[in-house]
Amino acid sequence: MPLGLFALVAVGVHAAADVVDDRLLTLVDALDAWADGVLAAREATAGWVDRVGPLQRTVIARALALTWELSVDLLVVLPQLGYGEQDEAERRFTLVKETWRTLLARLNRAPTPMRLVRPLVTAVFAAGGAYAVARLVESTLFVALETDVASPAVAEVVARGLGWVALVLVSWRLGWRAVLRALEHADAACEERVKRAKSPWPVGVWGSVLSFPLAVALTLEAQSLLALVR
Amino acid sequence: MFRTSPRGLLDFLAAALCLWAAAWHTPVGALTRSAVAKVAGSKSTARPLLAYFSGGLYDARDVEVPVPTTVLPDDLPSVELPLASPGASLGRGAWAVLARPGVASEVEALRARFGVAVVDSPDAASALLERARAEFGSDDAAVLALFAGPELARYAVSRARGEGEPPTLEALARQLPPGRVSAIESTSQVLMFGTAYGLSWPVTPGTRVTSPFGLRTHPTLGTQQLHTGVDLSVPEGTAVKVVADGVVKRASEDAVNGKVVIIDHGRGVTTAYCHNSRLLVTTGQAVRAGDVISESGSTGRSTGPHLHYQLELGRRPVDPFLFRGRKAVVVELPPAPTAPKPPGPSKSLKAAFEKVALPPEGTEAPP
Known about the structure:
The complex is a heterodimer of chains A (about 230) and B (about 375).
Chain A: H1 2-40, H2 43-46, H3 54-77, H4 88-92, H5 100-109, H6 113-148, H7 152-195, H8 205-220
Chain B: H1 6-25, H2 27-40, H3 86-98, H4 107-114, H5 122-136, H6 139-148, H7 150-162, H8 169-175, H9 181-197, E1 209-211, E2 214-217, E3 224-227, E4 230-232, E5 239-241, E6 246-254, E7 258-264, E8 269-279, E9 286-287, E10 292-296, E11 307-313, E12 316-318, H10 347-355
Antiparallel strand pairs in B: 1-4, 2-3, 4-11, 5-10, 6-7, 6-9, 7-8, 8-10, 8-11, 11-12
Helix pairs in contact in B: 1-2, 3-5, 3-9, 5-6, 6-7, 6-9, 7-8
């Protein structure tokens, strides 16, 4: 289960990084044009103009997107592996019973950037991840069925139906758990800081700063989520 | 970890689906697969990490420039006319890729579907694509059908439209299942080449070339460098016309390129026009083929009035004459007192001449 949660959120983060990849390329192009202008102004540095060609710019942009994605994987997605579940018997003997209610109550009482941002971005990544999984299931099944088993029309209907099933299944069984785990992790990190008599506000700031723009970019692409009903 | 109830089974299924998707479609999955393969001593099937980003579908592809497949006469029509109709250009682009050894395609399936007898020339490829375009609704989908098969192309078009997107290759590629990378690459190359074959010329065709594409000793720096475009000898103030529809990506001035305009024609094709005396467009402006975008000059690092015309495919500079199918007219300028003698035609140009059965020395002497 923790691996499944990690995988779901990681797929969502990659979908988001794929969205910002193009924007990064535009940024790198603009920076390069500016640098060329600066270098070309002096005879001594003029020979360096065009040292960074179009292909290198593409590689730089993709490397930036990759670094960004792996950083978010490390800071935001990796804690999903800490997910644990108690059955009824275990829960009976637990001293501290963490539930949605207790976690949300603490969030309400002492909101911090980490407590606010982590569940939100995780929800967005989980939704994006569930959609990406459903799309993969659908296209893979279409190809598998259409080749030997069924006519293209039938294959498309069946694949679309099972794509829907995958979307619902992943969201229902894993989506909420990922958000709960993100909230739980944020809460524990903030509480730990409070115990050491320090302000919980700076906790997890890098993870929040890096993941928030990705979540916004993915949300702006969210119209594609409606595709399965069309 | 998983409970032994029906819900536990569903949890397991959902987790397995996510793991499958992450393992095959994320860089972190690729890293894990590579590590596992290393430990097991087997060969990893993971792609390079940067290949997991689809942005810039046409970028960073290993563009293998096609050999000229059609030779056009020297007395071409005026610059306002494109070299070939859009359909014919795409057919030539398709033929350039299909003619390569080892390229997997679904030509037979498409040929049988549309009742086309044989696909053995650019014109036949063009006719086949024409039929496919009528069925699938776009050039991109038609070419995708050529490499991924008609049913998969139809499915991708249907799903892309479902997402409210036009059936461009970018939108279609997102709908394809795993393992279709080569079909996407071939399609992107055909679309790039097709666009390049449809470009007209920025100044009067037949204008003398004072420096061809290829390695040369730089006239002012004196170092060996790749000349990434062709220098066309035109007097200052000559109208420079854009070679196809597009959007101005950059209209600015620097000390090397002078006043420069870069136009993005889509499908990974861009053209640049350098050393102008006056720019007539601004960044972000949409332009139509044949629009005057600048007046030529000698700004920036230049030894005299000329137009440096550059063509890039997939962000890689290529010789624009390879997509003209005609003979370049190159002149040897008298060397400047301090400048080294310019070299002869580039290797790629020589190869192009050989392919069209013209002698490598097919460059004409100055009048």
